[in-house]
Amino acid sequence: MVFNTDSLCYDLLNGKLKKHSEQLNKVVAGLFDSDGCVSIKFSECGNSSYKEEQTYEIQLTSQIDQAASNDPDLQVMRALHKHYEGSCISYRARENWAHSATVSMNGSKAVSFFYLIGKHLMIKGTHYERMVQLYTDLKGVSLSRDAVMELKEYITCSRDNSTSLKPKKHVSPAYLAGLLAGDGWITVKIGVPRIRNGWTSFENSFRCAISLHFLDSDVLSKIQRDYGGKISKKDKNMVCWKRNLGKADKAFALRFIKDIQKFMLIEKKYIALNSIYRFHTVPAETKCLSSERRCDSPRR
Known about the structure:
Layout: H1 8-13, H2 22-35, E1 36-44, E2 56-67, H3 75-83, E3 88-92, E4 100-106, H4 108-117, H5 125-138, H6 145-160, H7 173-183, E5 184-196, E6 199-213, H8 217-227, E7 230-233, E8 238-244, H9 250-261, H10 267-281, H11 283-296
Antiparallel strand pairs: 1-2, 2-4, 3-4, 5-6, 6-8, 7-8
Helix pairs in contact: 2-7, 7-9, 9-10
């Protein structure tokens, strides 16, 4: 374990975190907005042999997925499953697809989970609320096939028009850390060789980024307003926010990492942030390393 004792994840993994910590709820809200989903499923409850006369019952499921490459030992997912008393945790290995782990909450547990993180959600808040209301109103009711088809259209429309339950002026560091843990990445390049005019020099590059669907780009705009950076279109469906953490923004990088790192749940991203912080705070070592590489660099 690489997490410091002042890290939220350290307390989570060691069972020292207070039950239903609001800080963890904010982090998990960011993780849910990126790698989570709430779904309504319909199971057959009638015995009719005709599809038109078949009846269905409603089921509610809430889940968070995480790639095994981010959490290879499933430590974080198991800890979240235990903390939120999830219904189940599963590991999926798919051919030609990334292996992943899933923490699921079903029925009343999915409802309870919403009341813990719902107010912190900035993307799927109103959608989750509608699904909880739908489940509460129709639980135990037999639904016709036509009613199910109408509800499926409503569910699709609800997700496409989802937002936060209440307008939020700022994006908290805890929520942003959860978003980075899910749909974000951190680039760390130290001593990358560059050839210019026959000379080989070594440059450093540090950057964090988050990519979301264009329907959710309003969240990236709020992040840009609070933390700076640039927003660009990644492809026809995706929008990306990027923020430089290099030497030009050293003062910001140190503040940003100090605020975000203590909420980071993913070990390799925690390490990446720590390496950037150390690079900026231990200049003597980096200068020595750079000078040694310059001496050894051949001239063309």
